[in-house]
Design brief:
730 residues; alpha+beta; Cytochrome Bc1 Complex, Chain A, domain 1; 13-stranded antiparallel β-sheet; disordered N terminus; disordered C terminus
Amino acid sequence: MRTPQITRLFAAAAVTAALAAPALGQVKDYRQIKFPDMRTMSIPKPERIVLDNGMVVMLLENHELPLIEVSARVRTGSRLDPAEKVGLSGMFGTVLRTGGTKTRTGDQLDDFLEARAATIDTGVGIDSGSANLSCLKQDFDEVLPVFADVLRNPAFAEDKIKLAKTQANSFISRRNDNPQGVMNREFAKLVYGETSPYARTSEYATIDAVTRDDFTAFHAKYYVPNRVILGVVGDFDSKEMAGKIKAAFGDWAKGPAVKDDEATWQSSPRPGYYYVQKEDMTQSDIIIGHMGIRRDNPDYYAVEVMNEVLGGGFAARLFSNVRSKKGLAYSVRGGLDSNFDYPGTFNTWMTTKTETTAAGIDALMVEIDGINSNPATDAEVKEAKESILNSFVFNYDSPAKILRQQMTYEYFGYPADYLDRYRENIEKITKADVARVAAKYIHKDQLAVLVVGPSKGTDRPLESFGKVTKLDIAIKDSKGPATAVAAASPESLTKGKALFEKVVTALGGGEAVDGVKSMRTVANSTMKGPMGEMNVKVVSTLSLPDRLRQEATTPMGPIVSVLNGDDSYMSMASRGARPLPEARRTDLTKSIHRQAISLVQHRNDKDFKVQSLGAETVDGAALEALLVSFGGEETKIYVDATGRIVRQHYRATGPTGPAEMVASFSDFRPASNIVLPYKSQTTMNGEVQQSSVTEEIAVNPSVDEALFKKPDEGAAAPDGAANRAGSGGK
């Protein structure tokens, strides 16, 4: 037999023996299996260098792949934004990169990086700024100077600032769409206080207040080398890399030593029950909690184990009891969170069906009580520690992660061996420690309970728990009504009333207008959207004073919107009926109030007021401008010599925030005994958004009440109005 064959046979026998060995000492329970102690892990340390200008540089070699990554951590953050310009830092972080530099525009920078499969990105978070570079080793010498140029010499191009503002306003306009986003935002206000930098939100006004000068001042104040920690990881020689970093950043002038203002939060908790009404939901999001701790708290490790017992995973109490056993939660979690230099929050939260909202609150309260009244057992603590330690390796499973952690410890002033001591400190925790920190940091008398969800359908009223404070999440309009003018004088009101009488006459006269109870219109519209122009046929059934059904036939299928008080809904072929979003309800209500017939029918209301703003020339035509207000709404209308309303100016919320809207009307014709426009065009901020040509207007058609009835959740909407409303007069 040849030697290789003998070797293979011995190897096979060794493997067979190894596989057979466990069979000689099999155990009946997996928990009896003995494992050796975990080996001591050796975490590599980056080389730390401080340049003459104060920049801290951390280098960590990794020769596995021919890649190099650079990360910068800058001492700044959104918590330093002026209160009147919240949102400045977020936009700054975007435009720092997109706005280009003094030698390359943002678009040229895109082309340069794309040709080398490299990336540079920048941003500003709540407690720091960041900038990151990733490229192939072979391109590093070319790309590093560009990265330095972005940090040191940003151009802040005006067009990119405008784009960033548009994007910021777009985020504001959509911020109430995500229920959990609403929950987290409002909970932060309850814990930290509405004016705290850790809870405040940008508004249209604060975004609008930011100028390019603010960007340059922000950069000059915070983006100096002695406020920067720079980390480099990848395929390089540390000595050579140190020289390259010095060449790119060594001549960057050091900034003055400035002590930043301390970000504050409220000192007293705000316990109680709070509610955010959100009718476009079929479930409730619930969060309960109060202020938490900082990560440098000596009890941090015991808190980590307590968190694992309470809400760490599938075996944790919240998941096991609330979700698995009681079946109350789609998702549930909880724990005492911490941040590096300001306190986190203690919170437990869940998503549950609307009809189990109160039961969900009860279930969370049971677990909050239980972590104290029913302390963690030895078995729970043992399992929690094993779970934490078994996942611990993922904190340093790549050199890039290790470098980021070391940069974080440097940034917040934590010891460099903080990560090394983590395992040892977790292993020391006992069930007595867990019981102690639960009693010390979880306070039932400080709990704020917040529910986000619909107002109807809960298993019992929220008031059964105690006094409920309803929170207002309406998005503030920065500039107020577009029609805002100087206070009305007696003369302007007298003239305005006389001119409005001409409007009543031109429309058909007071008696004819007051006799309108319903209308049905069929129109073909061309709408501008994100994907370009779209042709839509819209059938509208209006039942005055405040009910409306719109059926739109679109290329994506039919869309139905019904405004009918609490039964308002919208329906799409792919989704069935759902509650009408609040923003859409508001828009439809205001659109009814702006209609000429509605304006005239409210002319005798106590709060109805019409003010003459004087003559104006619009598109070459001499028109009279009037400001009409009632019900808290204002509309600026333009009237021609015959009394017809040919133009309206108003303010609305568009896809990217507050928008100046202008509606123009033409082709006036009789519809029964009322004279109405058959053509219209609407612009938003000067750009045409919609053009409509009306095919048919029916005045006082018979209206089937089923058109406004809300179908069951998920069911299809009622048949079209075109088939169920009589023709009426024309």
